[in-house]
Amino acid sequence: MTSPTRNPARNSRISGFHKKSPAERLAIVADFAGLDAASAARLSDTGNLDLGLADRLVENVVGSMNIPLGIATNMKIDGEDLLIPMATEESSVVAAVCNAARQCYDAGGFTSSMSGTLMIAQIQAVEVADPHAARLRILGRRDEIKAVCDGCDPVLLSFGGGFRDVEVRVLDSQGGPMLVTHLIVDTRDAMGANAVNSMAERLAPHIAEWTGGRVYLRILSNLADRRLARAHAVWPLDQIGGEAVRDGIVSAYHFAAADPYRAATHNKGIMNGVSAVVLATGNDTRAVEAGAHAYAARSGQYGSLTRFEVTADGQLSGSIELPMAVGLIGGATKAHPTAQACLAILGVTSAERLARVIAAVGLAQNFSALKALATTGIQKGHMALHAQNIAMMAGAVGDEIDRVAAILVERGTVRQDVAQAVLGDLRGTGG
Length: 431
Ligand code: NAD
Known about the structure:
Keywords: NAD, Oxidoreductase. With 431 residues, this protein is α+β, with helices and mostly antiparallel strands. 49% of the residues lie in helices and 19% in strands.
């Protein structure tokens, strides 16, 4: 909370802020914002993340932000039962996965596959006199390119990864032709951003020399379409509530496939599940989200990442395919103890397995959202937890939260003003 004593002479130009300790930084921030002692203490309580580690993961640390970690049950993937750790602040996300998984469990659950663990790094060259001839010159240097890339990362090589291929594209851009070299690299159990960025930077001077052009950007593409995770499940009619539900779900998919306004929300629901597992395992949510949305727009029109159709014997068949650049080492995956615990809960021992599990979670999430939308509507399932949030916003504490929430749900009016009135009645203060 900010207090009325917010420092009026506050100045955001703070010299040497990054060199201070987290406690010193927090004191500066508390003074700047007029934080009361309780708020400052809450920030500095980093829970299950060591403050020293937090200070090494990102810059200018003052504390940590805890997000609930829920476990989705009922998941069976490729014949194996799994418990799925999900880090999310949004209500109903964990429950949605449990429900979807329960309804296809007896039919075998999910099957999954992966196209590989290949990442793409891009090197941009401009001012190339003869871009099509330069393209061939680069392609002719494949062996040298492989040697430069593999020389960057002997550890990756020792784990079976490394350079796999080179592609060169001539792009028509607003600034004229642009030569874009793609390095295709197997990054195995690493997400691979640092690994391939290093290779692109090491190779860049050679590209400049071979093309006679000027090299600017050297970085991975988050459109990781050589790293596609896929999952599939069949939901029997008797589990989902009959033909009308099945047809409603298929129609909801058709809507998303035909309309970007709907597809954005459809895919947001998928990412509710995907991002929660990506975050729980210490992976880069933004990288996965960027890849997913770019992939959803690959035809030129933004569309659905999932498909729903009817099997030959009339059951509901759902499938998903999306880029899934996640790792088990690198970034926060290895360093963050909670991420390590989540990986242990999942029992995954390869980045590929993790990616496949996440794809299945995305499909499960989407099934539940579409089923709710096509039948009772999304708000009914959301109401119980939403009512608790509203009760807390109205000032309810302890037992009051459940009591106020129950009355809101019973009345069918989950609003803060109503919650305040109900709370007032409960406390005998008249609201
Ligand atoms: P990293 O560089 O920390 O670790 C990867 C390295 O670990 C490999 O290069 C290899 O040398 C070594 N390694 C050890 N065991 C391995 C195994 N079994 N398989 C593969 N490699 C093994 O991490 P990274 O995965 O290259 O990069 C991930 C980080 O990069 C994330 O934190 C991400 O947020 C960040 N990042 C993302 C972007 C982006 O998405 N646009 C850009 C820059 C950085």
